[in-house]
Amino acid sequence: MSGIKDVLAPPNEEGTRATILKWCKAVGDTVVKDEPLLELETDKVTVEIPAPVSGTLIEVLKPESAEVSPDEVLARLRLPGDATVAQESNLPAAAPKIESSRASLTARASSDLLSPLVRRLLHEHAIAPGDVNGTGRDGRVTAQDVARHVSQAAQVSQAAQVSQAAHVSQAAHAAEGASNTLIPHTAIRRRVAEHMVRSIADAPHVTTLFEADLTRVLKHRALHAKSYESRGARLTLTVYFISACVRALRAHPEANATFRPDGMELHADVNIGVGTALGDKGLIVPVIHRAQELSLFDIAQRLHRAVEAARAGKLSPQDVRGGTFTISNHGVGGSLLAAPIVINQPQVAILGVGKVQRRVCVIDTEGSESIAVRSMCYLTLTIDHRALDAFQANAFLSLVVSTLEQWPDAAEALHD
């Protein structure tokens, strides 16, 4: 059994890359199994990667700020009791151990251990065999080791060039008296940007617009908000939008789907994501899983916990995975209308909710028309036109509106 254990980047369903935010341990440090080893930042959450075993951190392959893919090797741990450790136990300190190991590696990487391909690659890139960390048998340098070494060197060189260019640019601006400031993108902001561009490129976006009267919803909320709060849940308007969407998604499952080249995958569960702003850091979408099984109180409680966790940076990867439909309540910031709202791929639709306004409306009362002041808001449904047509979008949004306007009667027995 090998005395070396690889530390891998965690897998994820989307296969997206992550950024190393911080190493909690340095080379030479002893680590205990499940002790935090490093922090990874994705476009959704920051997660701690624990040590898979107890041992000594002997190699860090990816520095801080480096991007990594799922299942990529990030570091290596030497297990307790490994023969190499015993042989090095007489060395006075960690630094001489590292130097001794490197010298040993250099010796092992002599020409008789190098394949013709590796020799050619080393010659082409002017690299000494001892400068490459060999991962082959008995420390042999492989072609993959050389390629990784070249890639890492290129990344370091590129980062240095970017840094130098930034310094030159800043100096030039200072000389001109300019006050521009460059704020580097966070990993979340970069990946949100990539996701938005990819969504627009993949899916033809079409938006339908309806208007909803929330007078009955607001009356219901006024009657029950204090009771909900006393039981640990906030009865926000978003709770009602989630509930109405559950009803509409069950009636129109084609909106609760994923478009695939060979067909439409209709999802059995209604997992509704809610866009949550994180200020300047970007946007995150915690998911209310299996919402079709939840009462109005359950939805309120789940949503309250999810939003609090999102803003505290305590969401887990599971909290943001598996969404089948998304709600963007942009009205909380004062927006009346936003269209199109970019679809959260690979979903096929997203609901936009505008600001609630008191407006003068013409209403029907017992067969006659009258003018009244009502609490109104605009609702939009942006669809992937590959998956849905206008008829389906309008039918879906019409049911959402009627559910809200006839609350609680139209909510049927799904909620209290």
Draw up the topology in text.
Blueprint: E1 4-8, E2 18-23, E3 30-31, E4 36-41, E5 46-50, E6 55-60, E7 67-68, E8 73-78, H1 83-88, H2 94-108, H3 116-124, H4 143-176, H5 187-202, E9 205-213, H6 215-230, H7 237-251, E10 257-260, E11 263-266, E12 272-274, E13 276-277, E14 283-284, E15 287-288, H8 296-311, E16 325-328, E17 349-353, E18 357-365, E19 368-384, H9 390-405
Parallel strand pairs: 12-16, 16-17
Antiparallel strand pairs: 1-8, 2-4, 2-7, 3-6, 4-5, 6-8, 9-19, 10-11, 12-15, 13-14, 17-19, 18-19
Helix pairs in contact: 7-8, 7-9
Descriptive labels:
7-stranded mixed β-sheet, 2 domains, 416 residues, alpha+beta, 19 strands, single chain, 4-stranded antiparallel β-sheet, OB fold (Dihydrolipoamide Acetyltransferase, E2P), Chloramphenicol Acetyltransferase, 9 helices, 24% strand
Describe this structure in words.
This protein has 9 helices and 19 strands. The chain is an alpha+beta fold. It has 2 domains: 4-152, OB fold (Dihydrolipoamide Acetyltransferase, E2P) (Beta Barrel); 188-411, Chloramphenicol acetyltransferase-like domain (Chloramphenicol Acetyltransferase, 2-Layer Sandwich). Strands 9, 12, 15, 16, 17, 18 and 19 form a 7-stranded mixed β-sheet that branches. It has a 4-stranded antiparallel β-sheet with strand order 1-8-6-3, with no helix packed on it. Strand 4 and strand 5 (46-50) form a beta hairpin. Helix 7 crosses helix 8 and helix 7 crosses helix 9. The longest helix is centred in the middle third of the chain and has 34 residues, at 143-176. It starts with a strand and ends in an 11-residue tail after the last helix. Mean pLDDT is 83; it is low at 85-110.
